[in-house]
Amino acid sequence: MPYLLCYVAFSVFAIAVVARIVLWSRLPMHVRWELYPIPRGLSEKACCGGSFMEQSDWWTKPRRRSTWGQLKTVLVELVFLAAVRQHNRALWIRTFPFHFGLCLAGASAGLALSSGALQAWFPGLVSARTGEALRTVVAAVGVMGLTLGTVGALALLQRRLAVAALRNATRPADLFNLVFFVLAFGSGLATFAWVDPDARKAVAFAANLTSFNMVALPGSGIEAVLPLVTVTLLSALIAYIPLTHMSHFVSKYFAYHAIRWNDQPNLPGGPDEVVVKDLLGQKVTWAAEHIRGGGTKTWSDVALENPARSEP
Is the bond into 37 cis (omega within 30 degrees of 0)? Predict the structure, then answer.
């Protein structure tokens, strides 16, 4: 059963992630933010919030990109949650350990699967000393990640319940998600502490998992029950995450690259011209006073009129 749970969880995770990527990639072009700096722009302009459009006759000149500037910004944001730290320090000291713990726990699981696959498929490549070193790393990184993730989830749960502004905007699903993480990660910590401190069972399970050798691991009582509970909870969590708003680990790519950093100019005859014209022909149903679309105006009509001169 634990092997089947893992296979199902990985399949659901992969299918859900691909489905969301396809869904988001097919959405209409987003309204441009036009916010600078854009890190993939020229470094001398990105540092001070400049734009290639500041150059005279910019549309006639080739555009240069800074791959390193973009990569550096993405890594800092993904690993350290720099924007949250800058704008909401009270939230950052809680959400950073949670997200960093997730990264470490995922790294530990990936290393365990890799070690298990080597052990199952290429046993001659892994010596006893190398295998022991790999298991030590799996255990150390796993315990650190699960600890940080549990502490961070508890801290976020406390903040949602203690801060009135957050409590009023908290849905039951938000609390359920955090409790789910606490239970799953707490179970993993208990397994490391009482059953598998050297990650020997975890790597053996990964070896069986990657070689489709679904045999029961030795042990009885708590040694059998606790790992089963942990695998069940973590498998359910893996399948659950991409089905919820927690799938923002995928949507962030679109939020940055397709929206926030999209400064591709709409030039005559360019690839965006037809797309923009089609979107401007869409009907507007907004009831706001400054729009009053009523389902009859198009976005082109709205863009061309002065709302200050419109009759109520």
Answer: yes
How many CA within 13 A on the CB side of residue 4?
2
Residue 261 falls inside a structural domain: no
What span, in angstroms and rounded, lies between the C-alpha atoms of 277 and 300?
Answer: 9
Q: Is 283 left (phi over 0), alpha (psi -120 to 50) or beta?
A: beta
147-177 confidence digits (pLDDT tens): 999 999 999 999 999 988 888 889 999 999 9
List the domain range (segments joined by +) for residue 301.
281-309
Which of the listed residues 243, 263, 294 is the one where a domain comes to its end? 243
Q: What does the CA dihedral 44, 253, 78, 159 come to, rounded to 10 degrees? A: 120
> What tokens were used for 283?
């009907």
Residues 109, 211 within the same domain? yes
- What count of other Cβ atoms lies within 10 Å of the Cβ of residue 82? 15
Going 157 to 161 to 164 to 170, the CA torsion angle's sign is positive
pLDDT, one tens digit per residue, over 233-285 is: 999 999 999 999 999 888 888 888 888 888 788 888 888 899 989 999 999 88
What is the spatial distance between Cα 185 and Cα 234, in angstroms, rounded to a whole number? Answer: 8
User: DSSP per residue over 104-144, as a string?
Assistant: HHHHHHHHHHHHHHHHHH-GGG--HHHHHHHHHHHHHHHHH
DSSP string, 208-255: HHHTT---PPS--THHHHHHHHHHHHHHHHHHHGGGSGGGHHHHHHII
Together in a domain, 299 and 173? no
What pTM was estimated for this model as a whole?
Answer: 0.86
